[in-house]
What does this fold into?
Amino acid sequence: MKFNVVFSISEGRVIFFQVANGPKKQVTAIEAIDTGNQNDAQISQALSAFIAQKKINLSECRVTIVIPRSRAIFRFMSFPSQKEDEIRSMIDLQVGSRIPFAREEVEIDFQILSKTADGYTKVAVVVIPEDIAMRYWRVFSDAKVPIDSMTISSVGLWLLYQQQPDLSDKPGAIIDLDLNHSEICLCYKTHWLTSREIPIGFVQMQQDGYVEILKQWELTQNNMSGEKLTEAVQSVYLVSTANRSYSLSLEMSKVQEDLNIKELLLPQSLPLARGVQWPNVMTEDGVSVAALAGIAFSAQRPPIDLIPHAVRSTQAQRTYKRQLIILTIWISAALISLALVLATGFFSKNVQLARLEDQLHRTKHDALQVEAELKKIHSIETFVQGRLIFADLARRIYSLLPPHVYLVNITISDGNVMSFQGISTTPVEINQFQKGLVESKKFSNVSLDNVNKRVTQQGEVEYFKITCALKSADIRK
It folds into this structure.
């Protein structure tokens, strides 16, 4: 990709931020598109008109959509596994009890925070309602914007923090100062710890002073709900586009004398291509682009992707159909070539026949390659469709799961034979889980295959395996 492009929608405007890839990255475009009180359809039209007017070729871009932190729910969880596939399955089973939505009503992704010596993994789970994810998707897809990923502003702030020179391995913070709100993000170099969006920006600080934002800064440090800090935050970056953070840095240094405070003024720190200028709403009013800059200047894709699963399924089906059409064209071309050979009598001429046979051979080779790609697409489509069914199955299993039983593996073989592997602190709850499966109308032939005791740093646990059969292929009924 020649460019990294990031969009965001907030406070009556769409922000467009573009960075050229290459050895020397620089900002090639910054625009604030005024949308006022427009509805989503009108915003899509304004975006489409802007892209056409600026002659932007988004097919050459990695496009990321940024969702505000206020739209997301954070949950910090710990699981007895260090395999990402197992962790994702455990999240699907347990997150429903941690959020005010059904599992099918949300989009979920996670980032690993740390791994312990006894096999546990701490993760930050990001959840947004599906209707919010679909709303952002429709606004940009209706404007013909090809979206590569959708993430939250906290990820962009962490990526911006990660790009700063001379970072220590100790915890730090980045505070994004905007016109009417701010976002506080606590970070390590390798991941973020937590973040909060607060309704305090330059306008309120100018009117009421800095008491409230300092209080929120203290609350953020003292009320960590994620991975616990082993030591205090020692450095903080105050990021803004308008040069107004000096007074805040003075007030923060009074509260925490040993805190290393650095002001990061983006118009001065980000390299601009020739002819590019910062919009006045940023340099004068203070509208922030910190999260967008962090994503656009990063070589890595955002670790959190919240593109709706329904969209992924549709994309897989379209790709499958497109490859099927290509395969049909190749096969038709091969048949037409063969028909021409038989109809014109050229088969008697060895030289021309050899050329046609070589062409047919190449056509068959290409057709086999397309067919192989189709099989991959079909596997993806089957996987996506299977996830939709698994969500219903997972919800039913979770309803039977006792509080201190953790499942580390679920397999389905021979169509309807299921195997559960898990961990429990007491054998009583294993028996309770087995009893629940026996009494359920959806399972049969429930068998406790084995129970083994193991000793971990957390104490003695019971590893077990249960097998059973599904009575019905459609568990959603």
Notes: Residues 401-470 form a domain with the Gyrase A; domain 2 fold (CATH 3.30.1360).
